[in-house]
Amino acid sequence: MHSINEIIDEVNADLQLQADFCLTEQEQQVLLNNGLLFFTAERIRPYITKLSDYLRETPRKDRVWTMYKATDVCNKHLGFYALALINDSNCD
Prior knowledge:
Layout: H1 4-19, H2 25-34, E1 36-39, H3 41-44, H4 48-57, E2 65-71, E3 78-85
Antiparallel strand pairs: 1-3, 2-3
Organism: Limosilactobacillus walteri
Protein name: Bacteriocin immunity protein
């Protein structure tokens, strides 16, 4: 079993190691409280290629997080990205 703080630490480590991407303290707090964190395209654009590669190459069972991309239904423009903790993570 992992505590939610350990899971957040693992997410931070993954983001930093895989894409040199660091969450702000505020972003970490939102993720801690909600298990979900939204990013604008501008915020994540410099990192998205490396993060996509990591997510594609790492089996879901070996990760505690994933990322989704949302587009506007009307014009198909990118709306935002969402980093989500995977629900089947065992945490206290």
